[in-house]
Amino acid sequence: MKELIHSNPELLITVVGIGGCGCNTINMLYENGLSQQVNLIAVNTDLAALNALQVENKILIGENLTNGYGAGSNPEVGLKAAEESKELLTNAIKNSDIVIITAGFGGGTGTGASPLVARIARELNINCLAIVTLPFESEGKLRMDFALQGIKGIKDPVHAYITLSNDLLLKGLGKSIGLFAAFNQSNEVLKNLLVSLVQMLTDTGYVNVDKNDFASILSYEGESILGVGKAETEELAFDALDQALNNPLVSIAKIDTAKGIIFQLFCKSEPKLATYNGLIDQIREKITNTSVLIVPGVTLDPNLSSEIEILIVASGIASLSSDPNSIDVSKIKEAACLEDDLICDELLSNDGKAQSYTDIPAITRKLRANK
Question: Domain extents for the chain?
Fold first, then answer.
């Protein structure tokens, strides 16, 4: 059975970072060696920003339209730039099995060009997932309106989309957090989600989640959620599942309405059968849709930084508006505290002890551990 664990070289995953935020994420993935597993592409209207990246595959879109000076925070310019360079974008992704779009919505290039890239993937019959960040409230209503327009434009051509709320991140980290540190935390959340996705799709394990499984889950219409959980012992595996299922930063949707779920279990050593079955049973107990399709995967990875890691991908979820003030801030604070001692000093409670949490320690801890 151990011989089943091997890399899957036949699956081509292309991660396309569009605009400033997307390109920064692509560059972080490149710095962490993901270019050996997936095809990384940076797309921008800003030539200087592209030249500053280490990633090899770069596409300047709308060269005649913007002369390489950016979209001026105008999504219409970003869209026209992508339309001008549609052939370049098509050739860049046409041989892919899966395309993952990452972008920050609210500006010009990412917001405007991402829906067109998604439509190209749809025309090529390529499974496409978008993971996008929403702007901070402080960036103004206009940028949020642009972001919401971008989501409206991308949700139909993509098979599934996931939103990350920068405001929820800021709420958890506190008002004293530095601007660059806040943006870095947002980028790290996004990067860690992508790393976990790539590992699931490229590593073949005892129970395998393949391309067709992934496509089946993405086929359900609605919003998607992606969460990661981590446990230091197998006995704490159910805590890791709770972390993955209740990630407050990833989405405002409720997972209990999901139509399809991928449950990926990464283990440093062989897990107990009771643990495996118990985790799946707990997922079913949380889902109100009795006909939900659950696709399980199990991969043995002796190099894991913890004993257990769990990845949850859920789709077909009914979107709900949610008041950010209802989020349990203590859970976000503790997660940040565990990742960065400097942030920890700012987030400790009055008695000097970090508050309890159950949601997101794995989102950034894996990143820190791999540094």
Answer: 10-158, 209-371
